[in-house]
Amino acid sequence: MASSLIFDLLSLNFIWLCQCAAWFCVLALIIQAYKLYLRRKELVAAFKDFPGPKTHWLYGNAHEFKADGKDLDLIYDYAGKYPYAFTLWLGSFFASLTVSHPDYAKQILSRTDPKDNFGYRFITPWIGKGLLVLSGPKWFQHRRLLTPGFHYDVLKPYVKLTSDCTKTMLAKWDRLLSDTNEVELFHHVSLMTLDTIMKCAFSYESNCQNDSENAYIKAVYEICYIVDFRFGCIPYQSDLIFHLSPHGFRFRRALKIAHRHTAKVIKERVESLKQDTELEKIKQKRHLDFLDILLCAKDENDQGLSDEDLQAEVDTFMFEGHDTTASGISWTLYCMAKYPEHQQKCREEIREVLGGRDTVEWDDLGKFPHLTMCIKESMRLYPPVPGVARELTTPITFCDGRTLQKGSHVLLSLYNINRCSSLWEEPEVFNPQRFSPENSSTRHSHAFLPFSAGARNCIGQNFAMNEMKAALALTLKRFELSPVPDKEPLKLPQLILRSLNGIHINLKKVEN
């Protein structure tokens, strides 16, 4: 009898606890729903001056983007309907202002707002808190310490190294011609630019073009693939879901390999610099590289970069220095294949400068005016970085009187700005003459932003342009390019501009 009573009391207590827990969960859900309601209301008020396309009650505009190669065309269509800027919703509780006009871009880029962490957080576990994602005084300190690494005296020896890496790629293409005339560009060019960055910036012989099974190379490719995949996978926007997923496990495993390799390169260089701590002494033995500058850099208080900061900047430069340049070179080669009259004009110019040489030298770089115009026109149509994000630290009132509040997220669509119909005549047409000296001098200062602008512009833009000129010159001197009719590339905007189905061209050896 007593035991039965005790059991009944325990049962009642258990039921009461379950009811309390249920009510607690309901209350928590109500509180969370109310917070989301307030968040939604706050966002609607913040973006009320900037209409955009019709939204779904749950998905916002996210369901309209299918990563099918047409997303940039959709964004471009919106720009035609909503001049200057429009609001896009990713779900019901995140909104961003997409800017499509140079006047707005000029105002935003003249400020020092930090990068929007929404997208960059996916790659931060790899590159750490380096120059790409830093803001405030620490960003300013790093920028000053890194700037000497891009002085023309440091960049000069890189041109020969770029030529050597390009010739390795072209030799591979020579061998491929015995089996097929068709090449998928991005894979080969990406390995070449990775080889280049490791030789130029870190004096490291990776042999990655001939040994793509190298553990570090595979890790870098794995990281880039998973970061890109995560962008298009809605469940993976959650850090917890991604961490518990198979992709999250692969990502962490690749990170360990990549970070271990970077740490090894830095450690070996630190050991070698113990004897020579002055840059002038190092220059007598070999060319200065980016890593030398990083290790020897000191601020006004005689403070250098911490070990953590050093690793972050090395990993940042490894990412920014190879993937973005690979995109620029690949899309320019595609344009050369598509527009043979400009390809031939570039080839004649290159032959006149190089003659019988198969290496580009520093003094050659300023002697390719038509090639340079073609590179810029290609980057206008196919910007390697299709968008730049900012989070406003203070309110902003734009030139047309509309205001955006502090904390708002802004995406500068470089793709749309580069095709702004009010500034570019026939914006869809490939016309390198847009970048002739006389046309460039009269253009809006922010109509063409391949390397962003303002204080946070790309610190490595001269390095990138030099690499593109050298690689393209040697490629066009050796091969004639033509498109593959049934394999038109489908634009895929991620951290960089890729192609959903690759960038395919046909090759034919040029007769000397």
UniProtKB/TrEMBL annotation:
Gene3D superfamilies: Cytochrome P450
Keyword Magnesium: no
Cofactor(s) listed: heme
Main location group: endoplasmic reticulum
Listed GO MF terms: heme binding; iron ion binding; monooxygenase activity; oxidoreductase activity, acting on paired donors, with incorporation or reduction of molecular oxygen
Domain of life: Eukaryota
Name used for this protein in its record: Cytochrome P450
Signal peptide: none
Keyword Iron carried by entry: yes
Residues spanning the membrane: 12-31
A Pfam family reported for this protein in Swiss-Prot or TrEMBL: p450
Protein family (similarity comment): Belongs to the cytochrome P450 family.
Compartment list: Endoplasmic reticulum membrane
Assigned GO CC terms: endoplasmic reticulum membrane
Lineage: Eukaryota, Metazoa, Chordata, Craniata, Vertebrata
InterPro entries linked: Cyt_P450, Cyt_P450_CS, Cyt_P450_E_grp-I, Cyt_P450_sf, Cytochrome_P450_Monoox
Residues reported in the UniProt entry to bind heme: 458
